[in-house]
Amino acid sequence: MIDQFGRLIDYARISVTNSCxxxxxxxxxxxxxxxSEKLHLxxxxxxxxxxxxxxxxxxxxxxxxxxxxxxxxxxxxxxSVKNIDGIKKVTLTTNGIxxxxxxxxxxxxxxxxxxxxxxxxxxxxxKAITRxxxxxxxLSGLNFALNRGFSNIKINCVVIExxxxxxxxxxxxxxxxxxxxxxxxxxxxxxxxxxxxxxxxDQIVMRLEKHFGQLVPCSGNFGNGPAxxxxxxxxxxxxGFISAVSHKxxxxxxxxxxxxxxxxKTCLHFRNGVDxxxxxxxxxxxxxxxxxxxxxxxxxxxxxxxCSSFSEYEEEFADMxxxxx
Length: 325
Hints:
Layout: E1 11-15, H1 43-55, E2 60-64, H2 74-82, E3 89-94, H3 99-102, E4 113-117, H4 123-130, H5 135-147, E5 153-159, H6 168-172, E6 181-186, H7 201-212, E7 216-217, E8 228-231, E9 238-242, E10 255-258, E11 263-265, E12 273-275, H8 276-281, H9 286-298, H10 320-323
Parallel strand pairs: 1-2, 1-10, 2-3, 3-4, 4-5, 5-6, 6-9
Antiparallel strand pairs: 7-8, 8-9, 10-11, 11-12
């Protein structure tokens, strides 16, 4: 559907859990407790909401978390959403650790793409960022997905000054001999991320071009959202950037987010939205559900205010594990 600022909203990110097997420093507290599955949306409610999305011409769904693969019914969720009339693409964001188990039960016909969060290739830096887990497990997940025939694979690297910015070139090199996209993401000043300093896109570009040669823009559309893509000389894969702070892209924002608790957020930075879970528990009709979603999208803010001291909207203070990655 079209929002009040003329933007086509055709993409929804759905968090199916705020639990995670890692504790990334910019996402959640180190001793964050796992959330009871009773507090997450059921498969039935997820299907009902996605069916409403589809009726409003939302065609692309990203399954996120937390770590979505921690849900034992994740394969059922993916299949059920993909089978909804009108939904054209279902993709998944994960840290990759559990991919070998989950992909035994999913094919590339059922799952249209996989984003793997990988902020470091160094064992010590990986542990410093994630506080647990092994980089080798994430890399094993990547290789398993490639070997299973998944072609739309992206690596998401949040670059943080003083933690992993020394690895930019090494992480980019993952795309040298693999047909994947390595995407560098600017950390957004929200929740625990406020304690860390972003590395802007232009600085990353300068380093990559100094090391590998000129970045050449790619023509075409390679994802659901705002990433811009480039080719480097002799690289099999692509390099992407998602730079919400230094290259603000709110004028072309096409997404909404559904938290694991069932709150529909229309902007990452603000609390604006509607509590869909309560509506579903109160047995509203599908027509009423669609109406509430439509009204929320029509009130979607014009853009975030990360670089401003004033906004007419209430700022979001929840950490990313509760908002949805």
